[in-house]
């Protein structure tokens, strides 16, 4: 009876650790997605922060670039860009979706 209890306890422990490890890995993979497409946008100043606004089909999306250089910090500058879009942390309010630019060009 003791051996059966020990085997059952060890099996449950191993399954619990495996399930927990899988959850951490899937969360880590989902936090950042890479946007491979070049997108057209307009640089704007919003609430003292520089953003890139993308407008498509009457809807607009604001991106908050973490690595925008001074050369591109010009109001109403049209650009083409791509980058790594990141999730907004829980309970944090931002002026746009955080993005780490991988490429940006003036149009």
Keywords:
OB fold (Dihydrolipoamide Acetyltransferase, E2P), 107 residues, single chain, 1 helix, alpha+beta
How would you characterize the overall build of this protein?
The chain is 27% helix and 46% strand. The chain has 107 residues and is α+β, with helices and mostly antiparallel strands. The chain has two domains: 1-30; 33-106, NigD-like N-terminal OB domain (OB fold (Dihydrolipoamide Acetyltransferase, E2P), Beta Barrel). The chain has a five-stranded mixed barrel. The longest helix has 29 residues, at 2-30. The protein is rod-shaped and about 75 Å long. It starts with a helix and ends with a strand.
Short description:
The chain is of the alpha+beta class. It has one helix at 2-30, and strands spanning 32-46, 49-56, 59-65, 78-86, 97-106.
Q: Count helical runs.
A: 1
The CATH homologous superfamily name of the largest domain equals: NigD-like N-terminal OB domain
If you compute it from the alpha carbons, what radius of gyration comes out, rounded to the nearest whole angstrom? 22 Å
Count of extended strands:
5
| CATH secondary-structure class of the largest domain | Mainly Beta
What distance lies between the first and last C-alpha atoms, to the nearest angstrom? 76 Å
Structural domain tally? 2
Shape: rod-shaped
CATH architecture of the largest domain: Beta Barrel
Tell me the β content: over 45%
pLDDT averaged residue by residue: 83
Kindly identify the CATH topology of the largest domain. Answer: OB fold (Dihydrolipoamide Acetyltransferase, E2P)
Determine the fraction of residues in helical runs and give it as a percent range: 25-40%
Sheet with most strands: strand arrangement: 1-2-3-5-4
Biggest pleated-sheet summary: 5 strands, mixed, barrel
Q: What are the low-pLDDT stretches, counting only 5+ consecutive residues below 50?
A: 21-34
N-to-C order of helices and strands: HEEEEE
Class inferred from helices and paired strands: alpha+beta
């Amino acid at each position: 009876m003791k051996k059966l209890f020990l085997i059952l306890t060890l099996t449950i422990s191993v399954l619990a650790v495996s399930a927990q490890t899988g959850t951490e890995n899937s969360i880590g993979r989902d936090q950042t997605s890479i946007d491979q497409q070049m997108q057209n946008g307009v640089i704007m100043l919003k609430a003292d922060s520089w953003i890139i606004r993308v407008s498509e089909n009457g809807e607009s999306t604001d991106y908050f670039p973490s690595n925008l250089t001074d050369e591109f910090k010009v109001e109403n500058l049209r650009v083409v860009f791509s980058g790594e879009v990141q999730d907004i942390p829980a309970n944090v309010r931002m002026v746009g979706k955080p993005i780490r630019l991988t490429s940006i060009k003036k149009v």
